Fold:
Amino acid sequence: MEYINAKFVSQKISKTRWRPISSTSLQQPEVFATGSWDNEDNKVSIWSVAEQGMQDDYEGDPQLLCEYKHDGDVMDLQFLDQERIVTASSTGSVTIFRHYQNSQTLSVNQRWERAHYHSCDNAPCTGVVCNSPEIVTVGEDGRINLLRVDHKGIVRTIDNADSSTIHAVTFLRTTEILTVNSIGHLKMWDFRQQGNEPSQILSLTGDRVPLHCVDRHPNQQHIVATGGQDGMLCIWDVRQGNMPYSLMEAHSAEMWEVHFHPSSPDHLFTCSEDGSLWHWENYTTTDTPSFLQGGRNTTIMSRSTIAPASSNQSLISSWLTSDSSKGRLETTNMLPSQTMSVNSLDVLGQCLVCGTDGEAIYVTKQVPM
Structure:
C-alpha cells in the first residue's frame, strides 16, 4: 500500500495503540504505544510519527520517544487517557504506566500483582479495557476483575466467570461488558448485578471454535464483531437471539484483533496469524457514509471510549443489512506480502499502526476512507 512505513525494532510486537486525541481536533494522531512479547526483555515503548519539516506526507520512520522494561509478555495494552497506559502481563499482573511528555520518560504509576492466578501459579492476564477511572481485566484463570485508578485493591472479582480462558473483553455500556472465551462463547456481564452469572450468553452452534478478539460498534453498542481460531469474521446483534448475525470468511489462520473505525464504523480492520491486515469497507447504496452522519464522541476518541447516544442510533447499521442488493462489502489487504503473524492493529483518524512477529511496526497516515 502507498505511504506505508516499516520500522524494524528487534522485538516481536504483541500490541499497538494510538494515543487518544480530542475528537474536536482536526489533528491526526502522532503518538502510539507498543508492547512486546517472547523476547528476553519485553518492553512498553512510546513512538512518534510527528511531521518532520513542511512535507505534506510523513516519509520517515517512527521515532522512539521512550521505553520501559515490562515484566512478562505484554498480553494487552490500552490507553487510559492521554498520559497513562494500562498493560496486561503474562505474569498475571496489571500495570499503569505514566508517560511524562515534557521529559519523554515512562514510569510505573500503579500495579496490581497477581490480579490473575491459578492455585499454584500465576495465570496470564489476557485482556484489559478502560473506561476511566475503571479498568476491567480478564485472564486465563477465567476471572473478571474490576479495578479503579488510585484504588490499591481489586474493587470486585467474579472468580468463576468462566471455566475456560477468557481471551478478550470490551465495554458495551458503562456498567456492561462483553467477554469472549476459548470455547466460542460471548458472555454479557452487568456490574449492577451482585451475582456471578452472566446476563446473557451467545455462541456459535456446532464446533467450539476459540474466539480471540471482540470489538463494539462505536455508535451502536448492540453490534459487536468477533474473530477467532478459524479466521472467520462474525458480526453479532446482541439484542437478537444468541447466534451471530453474519459469518464471513476472512483469514486463513487465527484472527488476533478486530476493530471498527472509531468515527467511520462502516470501515473495519482485522489482522491475523496468516500475515495479513484487512480493511473491510461496508457500503450501502441508500445511506450516507457513516463518517458524514455525525455521532462522533465529543470528548476523547480512543479504542476503549464509550460513545454517547447519537442520531446514528436510529439508523440501521450497514453491518446488519441482510438485503444484498442494498450494499456491498469490499476487502483490501493493507500490507505488502509477508508471512509473519500480524498480532495487533489500531486505527484512528486516517492513521493505522500494526505490529508483527517479524519484529516490525507498520504505519500509514493515508488510510482510504
Q: What stands out?
A: The longest strand covers residues 63-70.
